[in-house]
Give the backbone structure.
Amino acid sequence: MDFKGLKPIVYGGREVWPLVEGGKGVAATNHASSGAWAAAGGIGTVSAVNADSYDANGDPIPQVYHGATRKERHQELIRYAIAGGVEQVKRAHAIAGGHGAININVLWEMGGAQEVLEGILQQTPGMVTGVTCGAGMPYKLAEIAQRYNVCYLPIVSSARAFRALWKRSYHKVPDLLAAVVYEDPWLAGGHNGLSNAEDPTKPEDPYPRVKALRETMRAEGVSEDVHIVMAGGVWALREWNDWIDNPELGSIVFQFGTRPLLTVESPIPQAWKDLLRTVEPGEVLLHKFSPTGFYSSAIRNPFLRELEARSERQIPYSRVEAGEHTVQLDVGVKGRNFWVAPKDLERARAWNAAGYTEALKTPDDTVVFVTPPERDVIRKDQTDCMGCLSHCGFSSWKDHDDFTTGRLADPRSFCIQKGLQGAVHGAPLDENLVFAGHAAYRFKQDPFYSNNFTPTVKELVDRILTGE
């Protein structure tokens, strides 16, 4: 079947291609890539998640925290985030040169999300067309959009989630709802919206889920002018031919998150770009180590493999002798009130003999075994927490009320701020978190990227518009 081709849509008062650059947090999408995407006629997305500011030489300003308490460091983080977001929007707007549109992307579960978002919008009037927001249930997104007269584009992974948002809040501000982003929870990179009812090992076809989303939107009286953005797993548009001009689905826009990583303007380090060319099918892991509590997808590098191994070195315990917990743990812990099963005592002694001599308690009445250097890194990272999430499982931070989740800090997780900042700012990739969508293996297979070719954003957009 011949590729139908795309028609421009009207967004923000001008015609643009129905192509969205996915916003990748912590500086993996910045002004250079998003401005170029808009200049090519699409919708560029500045990440407003701990975005970079620059010094007089144009170099990123390291985000160093001086506050003695987490609360003080959290306020520093908010100031960094607003300053960086404003800088990125202004630069992207200049690069776009009046073409396309600029969105900003925030995670509702990031620390101080509302303050950061409003701080950026206050200082960039007329530059931001819309705000995309997911990772949680952003009920307040509509009222914030109304306050600053920008469009809003909630990110959901099911019709049910959209219906809840619409009923509670969005029906009050229907005119500024520009699109609903359907993010495939099995295929998208970064954090994913899998619900407890869905099996992470059994991907579902997105078509019936998006059809159900449109049916829900129609049942709630949402205008047909409100697009659905298909995000996650999108590579070549010829593969989505039956989605284009499909009356069941209504107006469909396509989002590309992974492909723009490998462009000239992409701000990620060269080592990350080189790594993308080597990814094989199945090497992007959908995992639940993130301190957000959400599933997320990243390249299964040594950093992630170590987290997998750490969780495997785990045994349950009780504080009293009960059930199968009939023997006392005698390695890795201080005190004698750790009762475990005999088979788990044998495993613990083997781990101890292999150098994993420190047993760290988890919130789930288990202990994990790590080496002394690993323990020291975990403890330091937990101590250095700057409150980058609204709720953090790794450090037990919460960004409001009493500033604690009330749960034990979880050593099976990691400092996501450190992992993402490290990956994008040149720290060894093997020691940091490298997000990617599950289609990343296609860089190695797609002839467009052969002979080490790296396109400009304009060349990539032109390629996408051919259906390839």
In short: The first helix runs from residue 31 to 39. The CA atoms of residues 35 and 94 lie 7 Å apart. The chain has two domains: 9-298+436-465, 302-427.
